[in-house]
Sequence to fold (430 residues):
Amino acid sequence: MASIQRPRGTRDFGPEEMGKRRYIEGILRKTAETFGYQEITTPTFEHSELYTERSGEAIKNEMYMFKDKGGRELSLRPELTLPTMRFYANDMRNVPKPIKVYYFGNCFRYERPQSGRFREFWQYGAEIIGGGVYESDADIIALAAVSLENAGLKGFVTRIGHLGVLRAMLWEIGVDGEKQSKCMQLIDKGEHDELFTLLSEQSPGNLGIDRIRSLLDLEKSPSVLEKAKKILRGNRKALKAIEDLEKILIDLEALGVKNYTIDLGIARGLDYYTGMVFEIDYPKLGAEKQVCGGGAYTLAELFGSEPTTSTGFAIGFDRVMMALERQETDIPIQGVTAYVIPLGSEAKNQAFKIAATLRKSGISASIALLDRNISKHMKYANAIGAKQVIIIGEDELATKQATIKDMKSGEQKKVAFEKIAEHIKTASGA
Fold:
């Protein structure tokens, strides 16, 4: 059979890479739990209409869609917010509010693979359903920022905005419905020239277009809101959105998050975002700098539930790992604590017993499974990151004492068989 390669846009992760990924994943999970969020999991595939009903037909081009043997149209999940809200509407509507959940899982999108973009990728995210608007928005931003801080990422930029501002300005010049969605998508992609061409065709000579241009041209800074208020003078809905954003920022700073900037040009490409929106960038990743996106949204009623406030975020885990690698973060890798080497067939039985005892004591222990010389055994121990090597030979069997070598210091000791587990725990901190 010819060599079979992995599908384009997917990756294999070896033990060292997986060790790093699991370590950072553990930090993210722990952070969410310290914020009072509980983990959920949803299916890897869902009915396709879950995504196309709210995100539009265009998303079909980005989805892995297929029909099962019953003729049902299904899709591999491209994201995790919609499955979470479907889960809420199906099974969690009567759970006491607010509901604070987090998730970690793989997602799939059919797009051209490039640096930072894969067809299978991982998301870590969180949602608050049924909480107070300002309080929930602040808590979700804080969780995202603290998660990245705890993971060791430095120099990331948190940008916060409010969709109510842009939507109110578009309504002011008569742009709504599908055309407004198109405009928001162009703003999200940074395609401002195409945006203003479209607006000029829609409302030629409308002075409101110049106000939108002025708003998008504002510098991104914490002090931008006062300048924005002058531009928005007379537009009550837009000014109300600014007031809402200011309330969120008061709560956010009380939560200890002060390193952020205001960006009223954030649009988010999906229609279900409604209020506060935010993005977190790691500039050193270049074009694929965005590592997190989120905001307030309306989805519950799409699934037959009563209108419910909700807000959340998704962090691109793969990009976080790329960012940590770019800044040369030293991520600890948990190797094998003990490697047991039997020298000769007579020592094998005792070596197996020692390995079993260590494992029962909660110590990770691997045993030599090939008959080779001590030099090759030690080389292999280094390769698997063993902290301690336990050698059992004729002399050790005769004295009932193992030779234990600390792989970091090179120090060797004789330890009675029955005290090996105690010694390994003390020596390695296991």
Observations:
- The longest helix spans residues 15-34.
- The chain is about 40% helix and 20% strand.
- The chain has two domains: 15-326, 338-428.
- The chain has a mean pLDDT of 92.
